[in-house]
């Protein structure tokens, strides 16, 4: 029996574009983002609304997949509208948008605890927005990657195409994600090197994952340096460090250029700066770098991972948590080549399996684990377990 082969173009045409709802009291912001979204072949704007109240009243009629929700709006602000929107459409992907103030950063953290999928900082002026290529890139990637979960097949397909035995095309989004997991990911044995430092990288979904992880590894934090890069802007990293301190019950703060790195403290890369570990005489210190973005990110994970090799050689345990893109994969390769180890979060517990998926698919991971198993594994490794 012959089976018709579905061409990529035919398969992709079966997917509807992601439906995006914009909620912002600035008509300039809505217009700018709408032009960006409409220029993408796999997404479309289905609603452009001025207030949270408008969004709550119209979300069922508009039926969006993704909502870009401003925080500060008249009538009903974003944090008040969020639970009402999710009550009316449970699988709605909500991305909070706000300017970089401490208050808005706090609200964004609260929104994620209430069900928002992610946040994005808005440049403070329209002139800044017009030139903000990174903002545009990040926004479109967040819409695409987070919205892929809700992408729906068109109800009408060509009757001349017979469904092949597992129809892989039916499981693929119109635009492929940055990382496509193979049917089987191969892990490598843990090296014999005893880890002497824990380096962690994360992005989308990372704040919640980090807080859960550091709460479980207190004994490790007490014994070795712990350095973290989370893709986040300034102000947000300040607040994240405070949350990590509360979750871990250990000191946590943004890294300061030149400060000594010691066990017992969590060092978080500050927004807008790459963070590395470096040798300074007999000491290990934090080195901050104001260079260009790496992998569209600043701070980026790769610089942190690679810097650990110069300081701790094969004694680096690198952990790649949920996030978009592939940041951490190249640095992870270098960690493994130097004799260290890499652990990645699994796909099922990742908000986006981009970064950990890239590391897993590169064959550099010695373990790919659900988030709730990573802490115990880290603790065992630092206690001498090599299995």
Automatic annotation (TrEMBL):
UniProt key word Phosphoprotein: yes
UniProt keyword terms in alphabetical order: Chemotaxis, Cytoplasm, Hydrolase, Phosphoprotein
Signal peptide positions (record): none
Modification after translation, per record: Phosphorylated by CheA. Phosphorylation of the N-terminal regulatory domain activates the methylesterase activity.
Location, primary (coarse class): cytoplasm
The protein's Enzyme Commission number: 3.1.1.61, 3.5.1.44
SUPFAM superfamilies, sorted: CheY-like, Methylesterase CheB, C-terminal domain
Entry-linked Pfam families: CheB_methylest, Response_reg
Top-level lineage group: Bacteria
Segments forming domain Response regulatory: 19-137
Domain-level remarks: Contains a C-terminal catalytic domain, and an N-terminal region which modulates catalytic activity.
Protein name in UniProt: Protein-glutamate methylesterase/protein-glutamine glutaminase
Annotated gene: cheB
